[in-house]
Amino acid sequence: MSGQEQDSLDKVALKGRIKAWALELGFANAGVAGIDLSDAEQGLADWLAAGFHGEMDYMARHGMKRARPAELVPGTLSVISLRMNYWSESDRGIAEAALADGERAYISRYALGRDYHKVLRKRLQQLADRIAADIGPFGHRVFVDSAPVLEVELATRAGLGWRGKHTLTLTREAGSLFFLGELYTDLDLPPDEPVSEHCGQCTRCIDICPTQAIVAPYKLDARRCISYLTIELRGAIPVEFRPMIGNRVYGCDDCQLVCPWNRFARVTEEKDFSVRNGLDSASLVELFAWTREEFETRMAGSAIHRIGYECWLRNLAVGLGNALAVAPSSTGILAALRTRQDDASELVREHVGWALAQHVAQA
């Protein structure tokens, strides 16, 4: 056997060990992608040129670096892409029931437990440490939705799934209810083969979107997306979208809940993703009553914490306004809104005023 053949076998064997270690650390799957993403650059450029990134200025600021791993981390030769399940409910109907109850606060299921950034980042570093213990020091950098990374593109190229029409990664065996993380490395590992797509003619995710943010298959206008409006946007939520938001106060799962492949979503074994603070069943009124101190204490360690108390109240005010629109006689909702009519935050006051006007409109 030539030295080149032996080297190739060694790399394949190392990749196999990495995948085994990933499973031991709680990841659902792992794959390896190459770093030539040049054929993804035009799509990214067109998306940015259309302004679909909204106020996420960092998307434009980083530009094509997202599609050039070796520019982001010099020396990168391979990207190890990993996924970790977060779905914590045995029955999808639980989430659907919460969404249908206008007086309950609907929070995207990925945010019900501990902040995934912290969980995945720690596990990815543990994986890097396992690799280093096996082969010695090597160049690497860990990413979890925290830098200019085309994570869905990399996951697709690593064979973890395909890009669904809602733009999320989909797998036949587990749907899309999982997180992605990446390990950029200077190891020259053999890339995995992409899997075939299986969306077919289905357009359920496009049809169900409350704000029609999926403007075409595989194309999302973030400016219309409820996840963007309730998480990324820092100012006032455009009035035209407020009635469409319903009771979704942090993120939106509609496109995933309706996806046929999520019938196969795996319930996570990760205890850090278990529900905290009763967020899977809390009422809008209950959460709206939290003081700033309660928000800071209860949301510490949660992904929700990063939007801040003002945006939290802003989102809840919209939810309460929508609840009033369908239940104008609810004195509890009216009373809750009136407690913040004179809130110190102009942002909160404006959204409370809008919410109260929904009662007047229905009276």
Automatic annotation (TrEMBL):
Name its pathway.
tRNA modification; tRNA-queuosine biosynthesis
Database matches in InterPro entries: 4Fe4S_Fe-S-bd (IPR017896), 4Fe4S_Fe_S_CS (IPR017900), QueG (IPR004453), QueG_DUF1730 (IPR013542)
Where does it live in the cell? Cytoplasm
Highest taxon above the source species? Bacteria
Record: residues binding [4Fe-4S] cluster 1: C199, C202, C205, C259
EC number assigned by the record: 1.17.99.6
Chief localization class? cytoplasm
Cofactor binding remark: Binds 2 [4Fe-4S] clusters per monomer.
* Keywords per UniProt: 4Fe-4S, Cobalamin, Cobalt, Cytoplasm, Iron, Iron-sulfur, Metal-binding, Oxidoreductase, Queuosine biosynthesis, tRNA processing
What start-end ranges are recorded for coiled-coil regions in this protein? none
Q: Look up the record and name the cofactor or cofactors this protein needs.
A: cob(II)alamin; [4Fe-4S] cluster
**In which residues is cob(II)alamin bound?**
R66, D145, L180, S227, C252, D253
The first-level EC class reads oxidoreductase
Recorded catalytic reaction(s): these are: epoxyqueuosine(34) in tRNA + AH2 = queuosine(34) in tRNA + A + H2O
Chain ranges of the 4Fe-4S ferredoxin-type domain: 190-219
Q: Which Pfam families match?
A: Fer4_16 (PF13484), QueG_DUF1730 (PF08331)
Active site: residue positions: D145
User: For [4Fe-4S] cluster 2, which residues are the binding ones?
Assistant: C209, C225, C252, C255
- Listed GO molecular functions? epoxyqueuosine reductase activity
Q: Which family does it belong to?
A: Belongs to the QueG family.
Say what the protein does: Catalyzes the conversion of epoxyqueuosine (oQ) to queuosine (Q), which is a hypermodified base found in the wobble positions of tRNA(Asp), tRNA(Asn), tRNA(His) and tRNA(Tyr).
Q: Which NCBIfam families match?
A: tRNA epoxyqueuosine(34) reductase QueG
Query: Under what name is this protein listed?
Result: Epoxyqueuosine reductase
User: Which lineage?
Assistant: Bacteria, Pseudomonadati, Pseudomonadota, Betaproteobacteria, Rhodocyclales
